[in-house]
Each structure stands twice: as C-alpha cells, then as structure tokens.
Amino acid sequence: MATRSRRRTAQARAALLPVLLTGALSLAACSGGGTSTPSSSGGAAGKTLVMDASFTLKTADPGRDYEPTGLIIGKALYDTLLTFEGSDVTKPVPSLAESFEQSEDGKTLTLKLRQGATFSDGSPVTADDVVFSLERVRDLKGNPSFLLEGVEVAKTDETTVTLTSKTANPALPFILPNPALGIVNSKVVKAHGGTADDTDKAEQYLNGASAGSGPYELESFNAQSQVVLKASPKYWGAKKPVYSKIVLRNVESATQKLNVQRGDSQVALDLSGDQIKGVAGGLQTTKTASANVVFLLANQDSGVSKITNNPKVVEAIRKGVDYQGLLELAGEGSVQAPGVIPTMLLGALPADQAVKRDVEGAKAALAASGVSNPSVKLEYPSDITLQGLSFQPFAERIQANLKEVGITVELAPAPVATALENYRNGKEELGLWYWGPDYPDPTDYLAFLPGKTVGLRAGWKAGADKELEAAGDKAAATIGDDARKQLYTDIQTRLNASGPFVPLIQPSQNIVTAASVTGLAFHPVWTVDVAALGAK
After folding, report:
1. 227-261 per-position pLDDT tens digit
2. 514, 33 in Cβ contact below 8 A?
3. Which of 75, 298, 451, 519 could tie 526 with a disulfide, CB 3.0–4.6 Å?
4. Which residues form the signal peptide (predicted)?
5. What is the per-residue pLDDT for 288?
C-alpha cells in the first residue's frame, strides 16, 4: 500500500467500507445490454451503463482525489497531458499535449499543447489552465501532491508548457497520465474558490459539477452510494462516448456477481477468483494479475521487536511461506510476486527468480538465528478486501506455514483505521499489506528502501544498507530503459536476499461484463477507462 502524505494507504485505503445497495436502479438494464433511450448527446448512443464496484472514494476534486474509485471517475471527467493506450503502461502517449520531449539529463520535460481541445463549456484548454491545474495539485498538499514534488511548472508560450525537476526525473512522463493530474478549467475553478495553494475552497463545487475537458461530465456524486456521469455534448475528441450515462454503484463483491448475472448491471469490477468460477454463460470475463503486490514486512527496529530484526529469522520466514498455497487461496489468474515491482512494469524480476518454499532451509535459518521458540504478532486489516479477497485466510495460512518451521504467529487483525496507524508509524512487528502503483514506473518502488516510505514502516532506517541505498539513488536518476531495468532487477534481487520484505502474490483482477460491452482493458492505475467502453 502506497502512501506518502499520500494515498494508498488510502488504498486499504480508506475506511470507506462497501455499502450494499439493495434493489436495482430504475435506469439499470434488465437485459444486461444497457438501457436504450433517444439521445443526441455528443454522439452517445443513448445507452446507460451500470457498473458495480466496492468504493474507495472520498472526492471528485482531481486536486485531492487519490482513491481507486476516484481515479476511475477522474479519468472520465478530466483529460491529462499524456495518457496510455489500453493496458499498455510501457509508453506514455499524447492526450492534451500533442507531443512531448524530455531532456537528455532527465530534468526538463517540454510539452506542446494540442490545439482545438475544449472544456465541457466549450472554452479552449490553454497553457494557463495547465499551469494552474498542475500547480494546484502540487501545492494543495493533498494526497496526490507528491506526484509533482520538486517539479516547477512554467508557461513557455501560448502552446508550450515546461516542467523542470531539480534532479533527473525519468518517471515524469509516466506520472502525468495519472487522473489526479487532470487539467481543470482554471476560470471556472477560480470562480468557485479555487487557488493553487492550501487556501483552496473549490472541492465542494467539484463534488457537484465537473470542470474538465473529458468525455464525461459529473451529474451526481455520493461517495458512499453512487456516482452518475453524463456524456459531454461538446467533447472535443475524435472518439465520442458510446454511453450517454454511466452509473457507478457501491456494491459489495458477492452482490456484484448477482447483479451482473441477472442484468441489473453490465460491469462488475471486484469479483474474486472463486466468485468468477460460478459466473453464468453469456458474460465476458477479463482475468489478469493485478498490479497490487501483497507482502509481509518484518520490523527491523529493535524497539519494536527483538525477533523480526534478526536477519536469520527473516530468512526463516521468507523460506517458510508456502507461496503456492497462497496462490490457491487467491484463485485463478493470481501469480506469485517475484519482487516488490509487479510483473507488468519495467524492472520486474522474472518469474523464475521468485522465492521458493524451503522448509528445511527455513528451520536451519531459524536455528542459526539463536532465537528459541520465537513468537511474533502478525497485524493486518480485518475489514477490507483486495480484488474480492479478505486478508484473514492468507494470515491463517502464513500462521500455519511458519508453525511448521518453528515460529509461532499470533494473529492480530484490526479495523483498517487502527491497523493503518500502526503500519504507517512503523509499530508492527510483522505486517501483512499490499502496495499498488502510484504510477507505472519502477521509481515508485524505491519506497521500499531504507529511510523511504515503506522502508520506515518496517523500521528500516536510512543507513541500514548504504550500498542498496546508493543503488536506489543511481536508479532514480538513470535515463534509458535498458540501464534502468538492470538497476531495478539488481535492487530487487538484493531486497529478496536480505531485505525485511517478503513479496507474496499479485491477486487476480477479475472484471465481468455483459456480452454487449466492448473495449474493456484493465489498467493498473485507473482500473478501467469507462470512456473507451463500447456496445454491440
């Protein structure tokens, strides 16, 4: 789970728990194909698409939005300078910027703005709007502010914007597609209290109306129950939205399955591997390993634990876990995480480098630790699910695995708000958490190094491994995919050998859609681009 001031510990993330919506909405399709009504809105086909999700959602304000459900919504409402095509996260492509160029030293990114792009009120998207939008995100000090930390934004001329970083920032083109960096209509936002600092008061307005250039506009917003989007009649892009209305409902995963099977919804975003096994015929299922990496952390602070800070105990834990057993629990489509970087991103370790269970090796490591009959407390959130999966069965399986090795594990589940506090403050002896990408670039995973965000949560302070820290600094400033790939694989190999983290699995991302829905492509940052969905 990521977070700096930041989010994705908003991703366990949020103490907004799923709310069960009973009964079908009147605008839900009974046939599973969407409700057809006459419409001339922006080329939309007059159809309503109903999507069910387990909400983690706080706001529709792109300057403050950093929850998974919010990123789905933001992607539809606010165009970004750059984006990605479908599921491909290897190459940023133009959106509001028609072209971009990064300097050889990686410190300067120059973007040429596309002419003819307009906001939903018909006014043109300008360089001034871009500068205001990006500075507002950076200076609001909200969850996504870290994305542009240390980045200066300047208008070079009426069609050019330059982003300048103090140090090499090769990840910046991969950061800009994040929906939190959507470009807002600066005149509209300023008229409703918007500023590029922490005195901003535009959130209330942006929770009731959108001020973007995206294919959809906000019709209604309720962070606990449902969000309704309507096609923008003045959308500037060549590909107009197919659906005139999209209803995103907050529904727990078991009910999502029922709804999509009986045609009350056309998309279910959060089914587990076991749940999709029983999905009736006539529906489409997209199965892929998610970008979320579930991991164990063993605290290195002797003030927290004099057991888990022993490297031989950590080795015993790493060798003692039954990874294949965890995959069986996770269900079809899940994969073992070979390192902290998920398999679809640059720098991921190959599958054959994943740690394998070695019970005898684990027992030998424990004997070499000098610790007799160790007992450790395993903490994890009790009231959230990840891709429809609860943490409890995984914790129980790990408990049983380590008992075979000679380590007693006391399970200590807690509500996410409580568990997060201990996790963020580095007070857990043994923790079971997950991390999803803030942006699809390996730089984001340097957070696992000593002195960094996740490293500190494991009590791993700066200076604990100077060679590894130097490798991280070098990787962060290196330009060129081949060189970066080698550096990040080397870092993860070292982490797997002697770090306090045990990467476990990447659960499957299972999305079920009605037969009528086309164009679905899973994306690790915004899950699904609803504007790309079609109908047949």
Report:
1. 999 999 999 999 999 999 999 999 988 899 999 99
2. yes
3. 75
4. 1-28
5. 87
Apex 91 CA angle, 89 and 95, nearest 5: 100
Cβ contact 49:253 at 8 Å: no
The length of the chain in residues reads 536
CA 405, CA 409: separation in Å to the nearest integer?
11
Q: How far apart are CA 440 and CA 522, in angstroms?
A: 13
Look at residue 4 in the predicted model and tell me its pLDDT. 36
Six token digits for residue 152: 């200066």
Per residue in 513-522, is it b (16+ CB within 10 Å) or e — as a string? Answer: bbebbebbbb
Residue 93, strand partner residues: 83
Whole-model pTM?
A: 0.83
| CA nearest neighbour of 71 among 535, 454, 532, 527 | 527
What gap in Å lies between CA 82 and CA 120, rounded to an integer?
19
Radius of gyration of the CA atoms of the chain, in A: 23
> Measuring CA to CA, how many Å separate 140 from each of 64, 134, 209, 399?
8, 10, 20, 43
Q: Which residues of the chain have pLDDT under 50?
A: 1-44
Please report the DSSP string for 337-373 in residue order.
Answer: -SSSS-TTSTTPPPGGGS----HHHHHHHHHHHT--S
In angstroms, rounded to a whole number, what is the distance separating the alpha carbons of residues 334 and 72? 22
What are the backbone angles phi and psi of residue 430, rounded to the nearest 5°? -135, 130
Distances (CA, A) of 504 to 289, 304, 322, 495: 13, 23, 9, 13
What are the helix (H) ranges across 127-251?
A: 127-139, 172-175, 186-191, 203-206
Q: Which residues of 109-147 are buried (b: 16+ CB within 10 A; e: fewer)?
A: bbbbbbeebbbbeeeebbbebbbbbbbbbbbbebbbbbb
Contacts of 433 (CB under 8 A, 6+ apart): 1, 12, 294, 295, 297, 380, 381, 423
What one-letter code names the amino acid at 522? F
